[in-house]
Amino acid sequence: MTYRWIPLFGPISETSPTSLSFNGETVPYKDPVTGEQLGDGGVAAQALCDAAFNGGKIRGVVRFATLHPKMGAGFTLAANPATGAHLTVMLGMGTFCSVRAWTPGDRQNVQGSQIPKWVDYQLVGTQSSLQARRDYELEVRMRGSKIEAQVDGVSLITADIRETLTKLRPGVWFLGQGDITISNFDVASEVRSAFVVMEFSETFNDLYTHVIKPICENAEVATVRADERHGPGQILSDIEQQIAESSIVIADVTPVNANVFYEVGYAHALRKPTILLAQKGTRLPFDISGFRTIFYDNTIEGKSQVEDRLKKHLAEILARTA
């Protein structure tokens, strides 16, 4: 697989469609608020590629020619070029491996611009364990809000960012005073998934089989219900994992069902995009009464109406940028 690259900033050059090199340099580092010079630092760089990525795996080989303090490199899983915000799994930057987001901050610099800041989701090890002139095979898997990363086949990161990003822009990120390469870059995107929450009865089975499942499949979203998963394990843990790894949660809250409401609450706690369905006449509990809900009639005419509204809700969620 080959990719087309757009370097957004910094000294990045493309050595092949799957390899990039970064030529770091020393730059003066200033306090972003006062402008006072604090010493020397490294330059940052980022490039995004044209790979379609809805979650899945990103692999590549990271190599540092030399190592300096606050030097790092890794994969950008999602980026917003307009704001500069991005979610990255990296080696270095004070740790051996980490999951971090670079977001617009709430402070301003001397020019009146917002000062970005790092949000640390998980930090593992220390940068002193990294070695120069060694190839590190970095593999990152993202499913819903869950991120797993391994280096040279060893699992190091298992993090839940509690945010499901539905439109991802993958790429690479560098920072440092020396040269770094990322080679054998590869993206293996997976089909997005919807976890469906509802009471298990004939009426709701028909809604799932004849409405929800085909609508999701047409939108290239795989569906799963808790009763479709088999094998050993603790049921509640499996459900929580399925919710965390899903891109979307679809819940029918028509009957007063404690299990359904627990799963909806868990999805909301993870800030999971959630679509609520209910038969007309259903009185929603206060805690969810303020959420937009698709009300439907359990009739042939009602079927076409819920199909149309579900399509629109799905399209809106999937169109959101990272």
Would you write up a description of this structure?
By secondary structure, the protein is an alpha+beta fold. The chain has 2 domains: 185 residues, Exo-inulinase, domain 1 (Jelly Rolls, Sandwich); 128 residues, Rossmann fold. 20% of the residues lie in helices and 46% in strands. It is built from 5 helices and 20 strands. Strands 1, 4, 5, 7, 8, 9, 10 and 14 form an 8-stranded antiparallel sheet that branches. A 7-stranded antiparallel sheet has the order 2-3-15-6-11-12-13, with no helix packed on it. A 5-stranded parallel sheet has the order 17-16-18-19-20, with helices on both faces. β12 and β13 form a beta hairpin. α1 packs across α5. It is elongated and about 70 Å long. It starts with a strand and ends with a helix. The model has no long low-confidence stretch (mean pLDDT 88).
Quick description:
With 322 residues, this protein is an alpha+beta fold. It has five helices and 20 strands.
| Continuous helix count | 5
Q: Radius of gyration from the CA trace?
A: 23 Å
* Count of discrete structural domains: 2
Order of helices and strands: EEEEEEEEEEEEEEEEHEHEHEHEH
The gross shape turns out to be elongated
Q: Features of this protein?
A:
single chain; 322 residues; alpha+beta; Jelly Rolls; Rossmann fold; 2 domains; eight-stranded antiparallel sheet; 5 helices; elongated
Layout of helices and strands:
Layout: E1 5-9, E2 12-16, E3 19-23, E4 26-30, E5 37-49, E6 56-64, E7 72-80, E8 85-92, E9 95-108, E10 114-124, E11 135-143, E12 146-151, E13 154-160, E14 171-176, E15 179-189, E16 192-197, H1 202-218, E17 221-225, H2 235-245, E18 248-252, H3 258-269, E19 274-279, H4 286-289, E20 293-296, H5 300-319
Parallel strand pairs: 16-17, 16-18, 18-19, 19-20
Antiparallel strand pairs: 1-5, 2-3, 3-15, 4-5, 5-14, 6-11, 6-15, 7-8, 7-14, 8-9, 9-10, 11-12, 12-13
Helix pairs in contact: 1-5
